[in-house]
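Entry for the shared binder. Reason: the reviewer on the internal report wants the predicted structure included alongside the sequence.
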Amino acid sequence: MALRLAEGTAWSDTLARAVAAAPEAFGAPADGVTTLHNLVEGDWRAVGTPTPVRTPLDNTVLVNLSRLGAEDARAAVAYAAAAHRDWADTPLAQRKERVVAALDALTAHRDLLALLLVWEIGKPWRLACADVDRALDGVRWYVGEIDRMLAGGREPLPGPVSNIASWNYPMSVLVHAELVQLLAGNAVIAKTPSQGGAVCLTVAHALMRRAGLPATLVSGGGEELSEVLVRAPEIGAVAFVGGRSNGGKVAAALLDTDKRHFIEQEGLNAWGIWNFSQWDLLAGHLKKGFEYGKQRCTAYPRFVVQRDLVDQFLDMYLPVVRSVRFGHPLAVEDGWSAADPLPDLDFGPLISPAKADELRRKVDEAVRGGAVPLHRGKLDGAPFLPGQDTSAYVAPAVLLAPPGRSRLMHAEPFGPVDTIVVVDTTDELLAQMNASNGALVASLACDDEELAGKLAVDLQAFKVGINKPRSRGDREEPFGGRGASWKGAFVGGELLVQAVTQGGDERLYGNFPDYSRYPAT
C-alpha cells in the first residue's frame, strides 16, 4: 500500500506555523525559500550569506541559513559581553521570572518545536517530543533548585558563555544548557549547528528573547567563527558538544587561555558481556539503544562478548536488530487521521546523505578487511513515500571482529552499525572496552554483580551501568567523560551551575591539564 505524508505535517505547513510564532526571525522568501535571520546585537538581523539547508527526510531544501563572517560575529560577541554585565547584576528573582516566562512560551509551542526537529534532523515524533520535553522539564527543575546551587556567594562568570553544539539534541542539550546558564546570571551565545536544527533553534531563541533573556544566536562555518566564539577575550566560558576532531581544535585554541570550558566529545562506548544469562532483560535494553539510529554520544555501538556466550548472545541480539523499525517519520497509510498517532519508529534518516555514505563506506572497508557481516539490513520494505529520496537512510548492520586497522574498530560510527569483539579473559574484556582512550559511558552484563563492580573500576568511562545502560542523565545526575572523551569542567545538576559560575572552591570536578577530579556517579 502506497504511503502518504500525514496531514498537517508538510514542511510548508510547519514553516508557516514557525513564521507565525516568530515573524521577526524570518526574512521574506526569495525564489520560494525563506531565509533565517541571526539574533545579534539584541535584534533579529538580515545579515550573512544565505546558504540552503536540506532535510534528511527527503533531501529537499527547507530554508536558507544566513552564515555570518568573522567581523559580524565579533560585533555580536562585543554586544553580548555588554549585555552580560547588565544581566549579571540582575537579581536572581527577576532572572527566574524571565526564564519561567520563556519556558511558558516554549511549552505553548512544544508540538511545533518537535515537528521542526522531525523535519530538520529526522527524529521520529516520539523522540522529537522527548527532546523538547527534557529541555523544558529539566530547566523547570533548575528554577526550583537554583537558590541552593548559588548559595555561598557563587557569581556569574566574567563574560557570556559561548555554546557550540552538534545537531543531534538542539533542545535537550543546547537550549537546556543556555537557559541554565542564563538562570545562573550569564548572557549566552549559541552557534546554530550547520547540519540541522536551525529553524527549531530560531523559534526557541525568539521566544527566549521576547522574555527578556540576553541570548545571541549566530550561524556560520566553524572555520570562520571558531576564532571569535572560542578565543574572543570577552567570552567567559566555552561549551562544546561534538566530535573529537573539532573538539580537539577547540581544546587546542584554549590552551594558552584560562577560559572556563567543558568540551564533550564522543567515545566508543562499549557493553561487555561476561558470565551472563539474563537475555530477555538485555534484549529490552538493546532494542531501546537503537533510538535515533544511535546518533548520540551515549550510544552503545560496541559489544565485547565472552567466547562461551557468543552463540547465546547472537540468539538474543539478532532478532532484536531485525525488529528495529526505521523509515520516513511522517509517512502514514490511507485512513490515517489527525487523531491518530504518528508512526512510532526507532529512527528515521541519518543527519545527511553525506553521513550515510560515509557510514556505508566504513562498513564496506571493515568487511573488505576481514570483518564478518552477521546482519546487513535493507531499505526495501521500510515505510517511505512514493518516489522519495532515501539517500540519508541506512539500515542496521552488525559486524563481527572488525580488523584492527578499520575505522570502525577505534571510532564511534554514529549510526545504526554495531561491532562485536570476542574475548576469552577479563583482561581482554577490559582492554577491548577501553580501546578508544576514554568514553562517556559503558555497561557490563554479568550475573555476578560483585565481579561486575570490580571490573567497572578499571573501565575508562565516566559512568558504568551494571546490567543496564547509562545515559547522559537529567537534573541531579553529573555528566562527564574519561580520557579523550571530555575536557574541562563536568556538568549536570549542581556541577553545571558550578561550571558557569565562580566563587567558593574553584577546584571544579572535571578533566584539566593539571588535574582530574571525579564526582560519585
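Summary line for the report: The mean pLDDT is 94.
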